[in-house]
Amino acid sequence: MFSHALVRVPCENFASGLTTSSRLGAPDHGLMLRQHDAYVEALRGLGLTVITLPPEDAFPDAHFVEDVAVVTPEVAVITNPGAPARNGEQTSVAPVLGRYKPLARIESPGFMDGGDVLLVDRRFFVGLSERTNAEGVRQFAEIVGAHGYTVDAVPVEKGLHFKSGVNHVGGKTLLVTPDFAGLDVLAGYDLLVTPQGEEYAANTLLVNDALITPTGFPGVRALIDGLGLRVIELDMSETQKMDGGLTCLSLRFAV
């Protein structure tokens, strides 16, 4: 069960961050702040203590804090983000996490984004993407393997990160996009496949006994309603415009 979450307030120039979704329109900072506030309140409503970092104007994507660390009960792994424009975001996050967990680091030439890392029980799936390379996965596997975790590397053929298309929604159930549904490495799990046009909502966030999902995706909502968990819908329009999702906006961990 998660007890804490770390978030960062989106900076005023967040729209200058990296994105491939310009077709969705220009991001609105005021609306982004309101949506981020609602996200934080949802986490608090689920019993989490939320640690809020200030905006970081030098890094417009820095509110996507999930990419700069992977936090387990035993260790916080500080990643080496794969996008040069984002490498440096981890500098201010590491000392905060260090108050709660021992730290380990991914070092160059390895690089990794936390958005490529999914934990299911004691098994990590790590996407090999433009943001995560094989050396980063090797280092990560060595770090977490010392604590009894296994690691499966999975090529990401479509989408920014592995968790753009695959997320754990409780038990042995994964919510996946059609592009990931045929992966052999996911055999043995119950797969809920997003309907056409609702792929964005595959990035649904499991927090303790609740699921937080983007509003506006009725097919996905119908799928997850059958899981018997509390479901919270949040408007994610401004985050979606910047290629982000629900998991991206926080680092969840137990203390």
UniProtKB/TrEMBL annotation:
InterPro entries, A to Z: DDAH-like
Keyword Hydrolase: yes
Keywords: Hydrolase, Transferase
GO biological process: one example: citrulline metabolic process
Single GO MF descriptor: transferase activity
Active site, renumbered: H161 (proton donor), C248 (nucleophile)
Pfam families assigned: DDAH_eukar (PF19420)
Family statement: Belongs to the DDAH family.
Name of protein: Amidinotransferase
Organism: Alkalidesulfovibrio alkalitolerans DSM 16529
